[in-house]
Write a structure and sequence with these properties.
Rossmann fold, six-stranded mixed β-sheet, Elongation Factor Tu (Ef-tu), domain 3, about 350 residues, six-stranded antiparallel β-sheet, alpha/beta, Ubiquitin-like (UB roll)
């Protein structure tokens, strides 16, 4: 038996490794050509200290308290030279990936299988590869624009590990990548993906979850919901998806399918244009009545354009609500520009 371990580095890079039964994370990382910080490998120095965000593991008792205190262990801190997983895990490494990897960011050559114009403002790109790219639901990759040295950052909208990967892309007039996709791309063309990247990803669902999406910021939530379909949550998960105009709403049928198939999941769509005939008008912050805020014991995930992110942050400040977990990602027309976890 083996387990998938996500190593999240402080520069936002994630490396997926496979850890065998009874193997330490440090040894598994070394097999994958990742040199995690380490001076002794015997549980003495504490150099390999990290934190486990989710998953089950054993540390044993062969390490010194000077390397890892009782309080640190109780708060999820680990020594990767002693950590033996018994499930899939997510481990934070307090170092830059560039200082640990023997190789550059993982680059994957993919083949376009389909480009669809979902609306005047949104495209869906589907690519396939011989094997899927390991990532955490919510993360993104950099895609090189054909014929140039430039890249654009796009969040996965597909299920982690799938051989076919999909992306929901804003159709920007004159945009370098979106113009190429809309007018030149065809099935069979190749694209190079580099990643995965980002610290915006779905954590273990241990309390109510509120998802807030703006425009094509819906993409990472589609990936999260694909993951939740396999592991239905016991806590309520509510998504509020806001766009400017009626025609900007995309993937609503997919959201309804998720709602039908995932226990405890619900969603609401919102249109900002006051002239819309849609029953829910305004901004996402005007429709928080069904949000499972739970007196702050809630994990909030937010992805959208900068003004939306700033408005939501302001809303919670005004309400005096401090969520247990607050994870957000801002994006611009050309790239993901900021990501935060609090």
């Amino acid at each position: 038996m083996s387990y998938n371990i996500a190593l999240n580095f402080e520069d936002g890079v994630t490396r997926m490794i496979c850890c065998n039964e009874g193997e330490t994370v440090l040894d598994a990382a070394y097999r994958a050509q990742i040199n995690l910080p380490m001076d002794c490998s015997d549980g003495v120095c504490g150099t390999c200290k990290g934190s486990c965000q989710q998953g089950k593991f054993e540390l044993g008792d062969d390490y010194l308290e000077e390397a890892l205190s009782v309080d640190e262990a109780a708060n999820g801190m680990v020594l990767t030279c002693q950590m033996v997983p018994s499930s899939d895990c997510v481990v934070n490494i307090p170092a830059a990936a560039s200082l640990c990897s023997k190789q550059a960011n993982q680059a994957l050559t993919t083949t376009i299988s389909e480009v669809s114009l979902l609306s005047a403002t949104a495209l869906e790109l589907k690519v396939s590869a011989a094997q899927g790219l390991g990532f955490l639901p919510g993360q993104y990759v950099n895609i090189q624009v054909p014929g140039s040295e430039q890249t654009r950052a796009y969040s996965f909208s597909s299920k982690p590990g799938s051989a076919e990967m999909s992306f929901l892309i804003r159709n920007v007039p004159g945009g370098l990548m979106s113009s190429w996709l809309a007018s030149q791309a065809k099935a069979g063309d190749q694209l190079t993906l580099t990643g995965p990247l980002g610290v915006f990803y779905l954590r273990a669902v241990e309390r109510p979850v509120l998802m807030l999406a703006g425009g094509t910021g819906l993409a990472p939530f589609l990936s999260m919901l694909e993951s939740l379909r396999d592991k239905p949550p016991s806590q309520p998960v509510h998504l509020i998806y806001g766009v400017t105009n009626d025609d900007d709403l995309v993937c609503v049928e997919a959201l309804q399918t998720f709602a039908d198939q995932i226990a405890n999941f619900s969603f609401k769509t919102v249109i900002a244009n006051p002239d819309s005939a849609h029953p829910n008008k305004g901004y996402v912050t005007n429709h928080m009545d069904e949000a499972p805020l739970n007196d702050g014991d809630v994990d909030v995930y937010l992805c959208g354009p900068p003004p939306m992110v700033d408005a939501v942050l302001g809303y919670f400040r005004q309400q005096g609500v401090e969520p247990h977990g607050f994870y957000y990602e801002k994006f611009s027309a050309s790239a993901a520009v900021a990501s935060s976890a609090a």
